[in-house]
Specification:
six-stranded mixed β-sheet, Nase/OxRdtase_comp1, about 500 residues, Nitrogenase, NifE-like, Rossmann fold, oxidoreductase activity
Amino acid sequence: MKKINLDTPVVESREQRLGTIIAWDGKASELSKESAYGRGSCGSGCGDKARRLCELQGPFTQGSVCSEQMVECQAGNVRDAVLIQHSPIGCGAGQVIYNSIYRNGLAMRNLPVENLRLICTNLQESDMVFGGVDKLEQSIRDAWERNHPKAIFIGTSCATGIIGDDIDSVASRLEAELQIPVIPLHCEGFKSKHWSTGFDATQHGIVRQIVRKNPKKQEDLVNVINLWGSDVFTPMLAELGLRVNYVVDMATVEDLEQLSEAAATVGFCHTLSSYLGAALEQQFGVPEIKAPQPYGFAGTDAWIRELARVTHREELAEAYIAKEHERVKPQLEELRKQLKGKKGYVATGSAYAHGLIAVLRELGIEVDGSLVFHHDPIYDSQDPRQDSLSHLVDNYGDVPSFSVSNRQQYQFYGLLQRVKPDFILIRHNGLAPLASRLGIPAAPLGDEHHALGYQGMLNLGETILEILAHKKFHEDLAAHTRLPYKREWLDQKDPFILARQNNSLHTEE
């Protein structure tokens, strides 16, 4: 395991640390083999760093999100803290949608519903010339006077990266004055090609400046790294006599402080939990559960057994596993009959997609294709038990058309035409309207815990039946709408042709 460096306030990007790529096309088994946890580079002159993959580099990007937005949806969702976006006002546009998601998440957890506490320093042209540290200092004082938070996060932006504002010294000085953590989060969008580095930036700042350095261990407490999902972990872990500490979204500063006191750390998705899980293990001895993600029978069984082994609750785990298998199998068989012959497609984040495909295969649904928004050849633990892609291939079979692309709309049409699914599963809803215009219904999984665990298989099966019942609506929509692309592009069989041509031209030069 590579040592995480907490001596610097700047987190190492995903592509530097893990070899993250954002464009690839082939079979899932081929990508798994190329990634292969420690078998080295692709051998095609890309570089000598282990686990670096050759990726398809397109000539442009049509649209995506950035690291700063992930800081916005993580640090900005800590209930008794304030996030200051040191940026132009445009970077704060996401506050509207994230406020809606935050309020919905609080309601799902039966927590008091409230608005986010976010401030933007509103950098102008003159600030780009003369610097914006005075605005930042004033914004920190405003945050303190208005909200009296227990912590203040500062998210940087592309603009502040260009200016070179020394936010670290401002944060250090105001932290001493206000006597609360004032935490710089370096998340300039141009520093990383994938937004998941923003997760790491937030978690890096939390471990450096909030987590208790002299913890008093709580042997029944488990950290659950998640987003806004419904509370499915509390009843699951209660079967093992364990309590849940949900972080980062909708947590309190006290919840974050006790991260170092837990008996173990788990997550619903290795993409989100990789950095924080590894940091807590390295710095405070809190073991990260090295197991597949809890999706389908194979993943959930292994996940519960490993958590039970670490927390010394093996007998309770076996009783729970047997009980749940007996409970869900009859209902699962009925769902398989109703879904027989259906073909699904998954378009979500990387590790989450691996888990969803496993659940679809448990439901007897054919999955010939999937789009993941990036790919991490390894996670921070570098433990092969967390190799979610290999777990999928080994336990549930290959995915013939397995593509990596960071939400490029212009590619999605061709990817769906390859496999012609009956429905798609998606988390980031921007791609769903295009599928609807092709007559394909989508299940936007706003609750990321919906398909998790034993009950999750039943949940997802029922959701798919619901959206298939409305397929006629999408077919009617497809019959009366047009796509905004030229016929030449719609006839193109390879959605990655522009990247392949761009690579050829680059090589010739």
